[in-house]
Task: structure prediction
Amino acid sequence: MSNKNFGFGTQIRKSPYFDSTVKWGATGFSVYNHMYIPRDFGNPEQNFWNLIEKAILCDVAVERQVEITGPDAYKFTQLLTPRDLSKLAVGQCKYVLITNNEGGILNDPVLLRLAENHFWLSLADSDILLWAQGVAVNSGLNVKIKEPDVSPLQLQGPTSSEIMVKLFGEDIKDLKYYWLREYNLDGIPLIVSRTGWSSELGYEIYLRDGSKGNELYEKIMLAGKEHGLQPGHTSSIRRIEGGMLSYHADADINTNPFELGLDRLVSFDNNINFVGKEALQKIKDKGITRKQVGIEIDCKPLKGPNTTFWKIEKNNEVIGKITSAVYSPRLKKNIALAMVSIEQSELGNTFQANTNEGKFNCVVVEKPFYDPKKKIASN
Result:
């Protein structure tokens, strides 16, 4: 969608940061959770270097929040996810999966616990507000589920902590990985968490008053000027390097956690009740038939991320698909996440990738492709 003719209508929402992102150079948008998200600030490779060398500010207001409150909020939130929440403290965040009755993944949000019975699900691209309200109807639990006026920004990259100190003071340095804190920045109400979709050091800044969106965006850009902050968008290159999932691409309603190697996010503890528990137990007992792997594709640098699923073939037989592929200028390799039959999933296995630029050899390698222990983001 070009800047000259956005063609915006009322059925798809604009972010509270919309005017600022256009002012700072957004030239293309896509739609995510029924909202416009800026996806183009020029060269995606330059955006990647801006992220890993200094910092970028991304409008991710499309990460809509589902707010769960009420006397049974904890019990209900546990009902939505197979991850054990018994050790989730107030002020802590966790990456979780939301599964349906068949064990399929409906979303992979970050869960924030703001108070004893106050939770936010910070969503990937699917209608979990409707799902949660539907589950609540038949749960017999006393909960209130709504979408609050909350719009996240992501400030990501190595200089992000210096920018945050400038905005919030020295004590922000104590904020631990996957924890959150409440702030008021010159009358702008915020939640700040040490999270993000980049595998770099970073923060998510959750605005709690949509009328102050452009004011907040401009404030952060000004504070970041001396630290090399650039406007940007979430980097496909960096998130694939980090092996991070993109919902609808690497996971969907027909994908289960075990196929993605996310067994740690599923608890079969007798005390924990969640939607899909029985189905997931059966899947685990039976064993999976396909598995997500990392692969390298042996060809010239890909011109951009894949926009369709690419078939993977072995001896002219389709054995899987590439779900996310990109050229990494840092690794100087074409890297991809793929779903392949379990027999073909071992490291070192080779096959052919049917890309939009031709058929090329590829090999199964370790993932994540860069910083596998996530030391950059978590230190």
User: Anything to note?
Assistant: The longest strand covers residues 317-328. Residues 213-224 form the longest helix (12 residues). The two ends are 38 Å apart (CA to CA). Residues 29 and 37 are 5 Å apart (CA to CA).
